[in-house]
């Protein structure tokens, strides 16, 4: 990847941005936690920020809650009470700017709150999630909100599956994918299974697999772990011998080391 963000190829990340609340003590359930630390998150937004931190260039497309009114936290819009003016939306937009993520694809909505996720790592190593949305601002992104010119400038268009759960965001997601594919842009898909957000396990399976054939790259956590473990084994073996070619291991040597390390 280029060390200069301005000259690097653009990666456009599409989807949700939210606030994670993480227990201030590790290894406890959400109910057992005495306090939480807030942190910006959301898988597609995480990717966008990670890219800029590594010297790349990224942009984010999504919707967050509208900027807060200085004197009130609710107001009537078209006869309805709007509760969307929360400061978390403002915080998320600022996080993108502070990390150098291009934000011309970000939209604001006054009719929904920012999504919240309570996340903990249990003692068995498994993560536990509890979400507060329905609707959250990210769910209300529409096709009309899309910045298609931004998408078409990308080298890679990256997205997850959360934006497929409900309308109008699902239609916006599919339209963005079509625009990227028609422009010859690489599609990158993180299935990012979060069952509590789907109506049922079957709905999740159907929704996530509905676009399975479209992307050029699909994140597969198990295969990534295998590839990284194998690569680390090869590197470790190389450090035990002198020279370049003489130090290169065979596949069987690497697999033997992996087996011993388990």
From TrEMBL:
Domain Carbohydrate kinase PfkB per the UniProt entry, residue ranges: 9-64, 83-221
Molecular function, one GO term: fructokinase activity
InterPro entries, A to Z: PfkB_Carbo_kinase (IPR050306), PfkB_dom (IPR011611), Ribokinase-like (IPR029056)
Alphabetical GO biological process terms: fructose metabolic process
Sections of the chain in a coiled coil: none
Family annotation (Gene3D superfamilies): 3.40.1190.20, 3.40.1190.30
CDD domains in alphabetical order: bac_FRK
Protein family membership: Belongs to the carbohydrate kinase PfkB family.
Name of the protein: Carbohydrate kinase PfkB domain-containing protein
Species this chain originates from: Ensete ventricosum
